[in-house]
Design a protein that fits this description.
Nuclear Transport Factor 2, Chain: A; 144 residues; 22% helix; alpha+beta; 8 strands
Length: 144
Amino acid sequence: MGHNPVEDVIEIEQLLARYAVGMTKDDVEAVMDVFTPDGTYSAFGDVYPLADFPALVAAAPKGLFMVGTPALELDGDTGTGEQPLCFVEQTSHAMRIGWYDDTYRRTPDGWRLRTRKMTFLRKSGARDSGRAHDPTRPQPTSSA
């Protein structure tokens, strides 16, 4: 187990908390602010650049994003991590569970997400990120 600087760990944990709170509050600006300008989100077999986030978040179901403590590996100004997720849809209380695989980069504004990739844990026992759960989601406008 590596020894990550405590200040960096706390800063990244707060960054990821702002993502979860932003998604819960449907605040796309707060969500976009945790990414680098060239940041991407991957799910459903697609990679979405930051410019697509407003449409992607608008199409996403609304509800509570509960995340666990991330497992982090930092190396200077970059890093990787994994974070468990439990999403509870607001009107039905249906859940989606899985985890994020992340990359991070330190910027002049502090640590930011560079990439975030979702893997879903399916009721069938499958683990995947390539099957759409919402057919109304937008397609990426460009390859990232």
